[in-house]
Specification:
392 residues; alpha+beta; 5-stranded mixed β-sheet; 9% strand
């Protein structure tokens, strides 16, 4: 039954055609009854008029205003000949249709035209006179108007709900696209951090191994092992990130944990092995930090030490200081590398390459600040500060 109702709603002209046929059938019954008593106009006059009177009902939703006024015109001869009940019924259906599908203003004009036509018919003797028929017609028209208002309000409500649902779907799609873009940006930063750090360590260790291959085979062997471990770690992280990019289902498989601020000691050890002495100082506990803040601290230190490996030159040293207070995590990375050869002034907001951009985005994402630039006495300084408690 519900399927039939949905199908009828999708094909409204079918229901209107059935209504028109029903009115025509009732008029034919009136015509047959009149022929039996041999009273009134002949059937060949009434039958075409009945068909003309009921046919516009089938098109009432497609052409509501045109069919309404056509019905209004046809009611005059149909009522005058007393050809059936379709003139009164079709007029009520037409008023209801104009209220629902056109609007109140046009419906009011049409109602006035119906009232004037009815009065003219009564005064001209084409319809029964008196107050009772006039009152009955007024009540019928009022009922049709109220019913049209109710159905029109319901249709407007449904249209508004459909518009809201469409808007919600559009907003949901936009939010999804924004989330995907943000996630891809985050993954791009992760890829940069992982690849840049791993490649820098590999290049430095490979250069060291090539120099120490003949003079110190043991040192060359340690460098090769470091290259192997660094490459494996980089491949592991790259596989994880590529799985996210491909949207692969990884449910049921163990996820590789992200590094945290508590992994800074391991990071400093790898950089020392790569040839840059790193002094690590941690004041306060880095446990129970928000996951994003903890990862941001790690990545900023990683990017800074990677830049030291690439740009500071031989003999450079690095110092990492991390201090946690009740409300902040303060991170400072210093090196005394190639900056000695340049007379530069401090530039805390100095723009940098993609690495510096990624660090600044990480800091700003979690309500922190980032300062990057040369030190007055030479070397390079990176300073970041994160709030411990993120705003909801």
């Amino acid at each position: 039954m519900r399927r039939l109702s949905l199908w009828m709603r999708a094909h409204p002209m079918v229901g209107d055609t059935l209504l028109a046929l029903l009115l025509l059938f009732l008029d034919l019954l009136v015509l047959l009854a009149r022929d039996n008593v041999d009273d009134g106009p002949q059937w060949y006059v009434v039958l075409p008029l009945d068909i003309a009177m009921t046919a516009p009902v089938a098109l009432r939703r497609k052409y509501p205003l045109s069919t309404a006024y056509l019905i209004l015109v046809l009611t005059v001869p149909h009522s005058a000949l007393e050809a059936g009940i379709s003139s009164a019924t079709a007029s009520c259906v037409a008023l209801y249709t104009v209220v629902v599908y056109v609007g109140r203003r046009q419906a009011l004009l049409y109602l006035l035209a119906q009232v004037v036509t009815s009065l003219l018919q009564m005064w001209g003797g084409w319809a029964p006179g008196g107050w009772i028929p006039l009152l009955f017609i007024g009540l019928i028209f009022a009922l049709c108007w109220v019913l049209g208002e109710f159905v029109g309000a319901r249709r407007a409500y449904q249209a508004e709900m459909e518009a809201r649902l469409h808007l919600l779907e559009t907003e949901r799609d936009q939010a999804g696209r924004i989330a995907v873009a943000e996630e891809r940006g985050r993954i791009a930063r992760e890829l940069h951090d992982v690849v840049a750090h791993a490649v820098s360590v590999i290049v430095v260790q490979a250069d060291g191994a090539s120099y120490a291959l003949k003079s110190s085979p043991e040192m060359a062997e340690r460098a090769v092992k470091t290259i192997s471990e660094t490459g494996r770690q980089a491949l592991t992280e790259l596989r994880r990130l590529l799985q996210v990019l491909r949207n692969e289902e990884v449910s049921g498989e163990p996820r590789i944990p992200q590094p945290t601020a508590e992994s800074l000691a391991d990071l400093a050890g790898r950089v020392r092995t790569a040839g840059v002495p790193v002094e690590l100082s941690i004041d306060g506990s880095l446990a129970e930090l928000p996951a994003g803040v903890s990862l941001g601290v790690y990545r900023i230190v990683q990017e800074s030490l990677t830049n030291t490996l690439k740009h500071a030159g031989r003999g450079a040293r690095a110092r990492v200081r991390v201090r946690r207070t009740e409300n902040l995590v303060d991170v400072e990375i210093l090196d005394d590398g190639a900056g000695k050869a340049r007379a530069l002034v401090p530039a805390p907001d100095l723009p940098g390459g993609n690495g510096v951009i990624g660090m600044r985005e990480r800091a700003h994402l979690f309500g922190g600040i980032l300062q990057v630039g040369p030190q007055p006495g030479g070397g390079w300084r990176v300073h970041a500060s994160f709030p411990v408690r993120l705003d909801p």
